[in-house]
């Protein structure tokens, strides 16, 4: 099966938005708990065309799935448009 391995590159979920890949491997660990959110997890999973592999601790995966809070963005867009 080693002859089936090919060179691949890693990218972030943010950079992969709008793209699809045959296989996606999502590493989820508590060291990056600030990035564990449901919307990023969903985005990562939906990038896979054929296979998605989730690697990590049960605690990290559970935290990503349970975190549904949307973070408020403070862009001051309304004030900028009014000016």
TrEMBL record:
GO MF term (any one)? helicase activity
Q: Which Pfam families match?
A: UvrD_C_2
Q: Where is the UvrD-like helicase C-terminal domain?
A: 8-55
Keywords, ordered alphabetically: ATP-binding, Helicase, Hydrolase, Nucleotide-binding
Q: What is this protein called?
A: RecD/TraA family helicase
InterPro entries per UniProt? P-loop_NTPase (IPR027417), UvrD-like_helicase_C (IPR027785)
Q: Which residues cross the membrane?
A: none
